[in-house]
Amino acid sequence: MAEKKEKKKKKFNWFGMYNLEGKGVDKDEPDFISEPTFGNFFRLLGRKWNTLITVNLMMVFGNFPIFFYFIYRAGYFGITTSAPYFQQFIPLYGAAMFEHSPVVSALYGIFGIQVPTTVNTPMTLLFLWLTALLFITFGPVNAGITYITRGMMRGEPIFLWSDFWHAIKKNFKQALPMGIIDLAGLLLLGNDIVFFWGHLTSFGMYMMFYASIIMFLLFFIMRFYMYHIMITFDLPLYKIFKNSIIFTLLGIKRNLMGLLGCIVVIALNYLIFGTYIPVGIVLPFVFTPALMMLIETYTAYPKIKEYMIDPYYGDSSGGSDEASDDDSEADEAETSE
Fold first, then answer.
1. What is the largest CA-CA distance in the chain?
2. How many helices and strands, by DSSP H and E, does the chain display?
3. Closest by alpha carbon to 92, among 101, 82, 104, 83?
């Protein structure tokens, strides 16, 4: 009876429902840190496939304010009306008020197209402002998920829920401001790309457009390292950013491969969305962000171990197991030194 009750408890553990018992660890299991090869990544992915689905759910529900934004964009609480699609409609409408010629009528039929639009109400604006809570959840959730993906790569026992909250509680004071800076950087640089893309009217605008893309990609690579350094070492926030910038250039070949991997994942998700919309919509809520986090960990942690952990402990074979966030004494092990 006791065994049956225990099975029932495990069955209804929502965040652990994909953690089925497997065949265990193979004695010939590769060392993913010492041999972070292209083929070993897919071996790691195959072993952690089910766990990543649970991790993705934790990311999605941890960043729950994003759902407020979806409600805002859906316009359920807004006022639905119509508006002209072309900007030329305004002067054309003025001309039509004073002259009823065949030319004006023809142009009016082309540029007078009306499209449905939604006018904001206090309720829709409320959901938009509630979306700002994402600045509070973004950093801590990323810290917790990074702790889990780092444990996957290091081959450590993973207890998803407890490890997630342990990392958040231990790093909350740094994760909160880091998440605000991180999310603000992504939004601002992304907005710059969209803005300059819509104003490519001169050489200067082209230069600003390409500069924005380069800055966004460099910042995206920098993000590979920020949270890993934070949860692994006891360093001030400005040193975390400084070392992340150094690693962006120090591991350029590996970083470009990791960046390419993330781009491929996003492109495949977009392709699936264009082919069959329901699956394309569901994927980000089920798997895509967690897979990108695993790619980031697989890209960044071997370099962090090589340049910050191994030199401190003087042992390239065992440093990864000792330099955990629980007993980290490597607060002076900076790449700048």
1. 89
2. 15, 2
3. 104
Question: Does residue 88 belong to any structural domain of this protein?
Answer: no
The answer to whether residue 245 is domain-embedded is yes
The structure tokens 């007078």 sit at 112
Q: What token pair was written down for 182?
A: 């991180």
C-alpha–C-alpha distance, residues 242 and 235, integer Å: 11
Amino acid letter at 119? V
What is the secondary structure of 146-206 as a DSSP string?
HHHHHHHHHT----HHHHHHHHHHHHHHHHHHHHHHHHHHHHHHHHHHHHHHTT--SHHHH
**pLDDT tens for residues 108-150?**
777 777 777 778 888 888 999 999 999 999 999 999 999 999 9
Token pair in block for residue 52: 């990543």
* Structural tokens at position 24: 């265990």
| Other C-beta atoms lying within 10 Å of the C-beta of residue 62 | 17
Domain count, the chain: 1
Question: Which tens digit of pLDDT belongs to each residue from 119-129?
Answer: 888 888 899 99
Is the Cα dihedral 176, 59, 235, 322 positive or negative? positive
For residue 320, the model assigns a pLDDT of 41
Percent of the chain with pLDDT over 90: 49
* Domain contains 23: no
CA distance 316 to 146: 22
Look up the domain containing 185 and give its range: 59-65+130-337
Which residue's structure tokens are 């960043």? Answer: 63
Burial class (CB in 10 A: 0-12, 13-18, 19+), 328: middle
Closest to 298 measured CA to CA, from 56, 22, 50, 48 = 48
227: nearest Cα among 160, 179, 291, 173: 179
Answer whether residue 12 is part of any domain: no
Q: Which of 138, 145, 139 is nearest to 290 (CA)?
A: 145
Q: Tokens for 208?
A: 């600003």
pLDDT: which is higher, 169 or 117: 169
